[in-house]
Design a protein that fits this description.
mainly alpha
Length: 243
Amino acid sequence: SSGINAEYGELNCVETLLHILQDYTDHTAKQLTSELLRQLCSLEHVKEQVKVFDGIPLCLSVLHEADLILQFNIVSIVERLSTDNDSSNDIRELGGIPLLITLIQDQCSKRKVSNNFNENVEEVEENGITSPIVTVERYDSIKLQTGCCAALTQLSLNDTNAQNIVHSNGVYILGKLILPTSSVVEDPEEEELLEMLQKSALRALRFLFSMERNRQLFKRFKCSFIYEITVGIYFQEYDVVAK
């Protein structure tokens, strides 16, 4: 609850939490630490302490670790830090935006490999052929991508950040996420998570489209569906506000 978060925030534990994230090797400890810090970052003075103790470059470095739960928590921290304009600029200057976009791409590739393996697993067993198995925690993978989209949306409120997203091929990467999946999803929970991912990606595109200079880029999409749905939602909301 917000009350409990406030009490923890008064303990001045941010430096200790950042120390655990940087120096500990135990994955469970780092996951729990990042979750606590994510919750505490709802408090303004905690976000300020994260910045003071050089938490922004540390968080971005942790994103390179192959732990989906840890990465999701860190991405959520980045999103909350981005509400401060100075922190938002720091994240961009430290290469945070291309890193978030790369995370989205990597998870798409890993799930594709996982799908291909699952489709061919019976044939592999029959032929007695061994091949490396790429294991992807699908739910956590989709949640991570959704978190990255939310962080990019928050960062895009800064015009310079928005341009950085565009120059990092972010419009195309986000656009691919809102396209219908090529395979049938039989798992109801996964289907719901994919729908949330599409909505989060569409929200990021909507914010990017609100900048006049980006609109020509949207028209270059080979898929007119992406352009039409983004433009339609933007002007529908514009009309509602105008009324």
